[in-house]
Amino acid sequence: YTNNGETVADYLDGRVQDHGNYSYFIAILQKAELWGQMRTYGTYTCFAPNDSAMQAYIDMRREEAVGDSIKQIFQSLETVLQNRKVCDTIARTHLFNNLMFASDMNGSGVLQHPNLLDRYVTYNSIPDSSVKAKDESGNVLKAADGSDSVLVKLKYLINMQASIVHADDTVENGVVHRIDQVLRSSNQCVPGLMKENPNLSIFYSALVLTGLKDTLEKYYDD
Predict the structure, then answer these.
(1) What one-character-per-residue DSSP string does 73-96 give?
(2) At what angle do helices 23-31 and 84-93 cross, to 10 degrees?
(3) Are strands 150-158 and 122-132 parallel, antiparallel or unpaired?
(4) Cα–Cα dist 138/220, whole Å
(5) For 139-191, how does the pLDDT look when each residue is reduced to its tens digit (9 = 90+)?
(6) Sign of the CA dihedral 203, 209, 212, 213?
(7) Which residues make Cβ contacts (< 8 Å) with residue 171, sequence separation at least 6?
(8) At a CB cut-off of 8 Å and minimum separation 6, what does 64 contact?
């Protein structure tokens, strides 16, 4: 897809029929006072969850155990919008002030730029052969041995949580990646994220042995 002058905001607001509604995410961006930035010049990367992903997140956070009691968290989008801090966290977790494309997410690792919360996000790319190859009439193509032919392409997983449904939709002020789940924020530094990623176990062990783990966990707090 090549952009035609639309911004991130235009994309989220105007492509409903193509890939679902983004009204929940738009409302959260507006509450966090970031919607205006999505209309202006810049170089943003947006991981965009549609309304289905947002509703699944709200349902997951509906209740939370606190000691021996159950605390009511989110009952609907309206209850989320009542908490400006929560909206700000959700919005900034999905936005980056730098351009990052699928080509920046080969293999496994940490995205080279933090999100607007100054938190680093992990990625994993794995071969996905679940899609069957079809001809122009919609018939499944056959391989030489008679089995169904499949399309092998990369599947991207962000923060070990959300899959990229469609990558690299470029717009005037950045790029949009459609994801199937809401990204949950992390307070960890880079070594903590690496420790959780099984594909980085050897490199993480090297960080520990060389003492660089402690160096990477330092941060500036003004």
Answers:
(1) --SSHHHHHT-HHHHHHHHHHTEE
(2) 120
(3) antiparallel
(4) 56
(5) 777 777 777 776 556 788 898 889 999 999 999 999 999 999 999 876 667 78
(6) positive
(7) 3, 6, 7, 8, 10, 11
(8) 70, 71, 73
The residue whose two tokens read 């919005």 is 91
- Provide the 3-class DSSP secondary structure of residue 116: coil
Strand extents, DSSP E, the chain: 44-49, 63-66, 69-72, 95-96, 108-110, 122-132, 150-158, 162-171, 174-179
pLDDT tens sequence across 197-215 = 777 889 989 999 999 888 8
With tokens 């001809």, the residue in question is 135
> Which residue from 157, 165, 144, 154 is spatially nearest to 199, judged by alpha carbons?
157
**What Cα–Cα distance (Å) separates residue 114 from each residue in 55, 94, 95, 122?**
26, 10, 9, 10
Strand pairing report for 108-110 and 69-72: unpaired
